[in-house]
Specification:
The chain is 37% helix and 28% strand. It contains four helices and eight strands; from the N terminus they run E-H-H-E-E-E-E-E-E-H-E-H. The strands form two sheets. It has a four-stranded antiparallel sheet, with helices on one face. The protein has a four-stranded mixed sheet with strand order 7-6-5-8, covered by helices on one side. Helix 1 packs antiparallel against helix 2.
């Protein structure tokens, strides 16, 4: 097989209700007030801009992105990695969102994730096993918390 291609959302999206935005607003205002009381206006401005940006991104639905596994490496949208950069992979199908986790040789972003359809998991696992090592892994606790809280 030469390559495997599919379309999937670029990230896991959770619809946010008005409660989510109220909580973000209350936390933001609290931190801003504390910063102003402590004479740290620049930090207060940074928090305001960050909260606004977070709210914009949180309300944006994910784009559908082309994913590809080929003989050279992996591609997700415009980003690609050769198999020499990838240390290992794991096809996770037991969680709510089936996905492939790649451990990449990068310091600041050591994991790369592809969302998949559960029916494709076996075919993908066989294809990737021919190119890289399969190793059981999971996202970091921080990543799981972000998904849990709807980020």
């Amino acid at each position: 097989m030469e390559k495997i291609e599919w379309q999937a959302p670029e990230y896991i999206h959770t619809e946010k209700g008005s409660d989510w935005y109220w909580i973000v607003g209350i936390v933001t205002i609290s931190i801003v007030l504390i910063s102003i009381i402590l004479n740290n206006v620049i930090f207060a401005l940074l928090i305001l801009v960050s909260a606004f940006t977070l709210s914009l991104f949180a309300s944006r639905p994910p784009k559908m992105v082309k994913h590809e596994l080929n003989n050279i490496g992996i591609e997700k949208g415009q980003t690609s990695h050769s198999y020499s950069e990838i240390k290992s992979f794991w096809v996770e199908t037991t969680d709510r969102y089936p996905r492939i986790l790649f451990k990449i040789d990068h310091r600041f972003s050591p994991y790369f994730i592809f969302l998949i359809h559960p029916n494709d998991a076996t075919e993908i696992r066989i294809y990737l096993s021919a190119h890289i090592i399969e190793e059981k892994m999971t996202e970091s606790i921080f990543e799981k918390l972000l998904i849990y809280f709807g980020f």
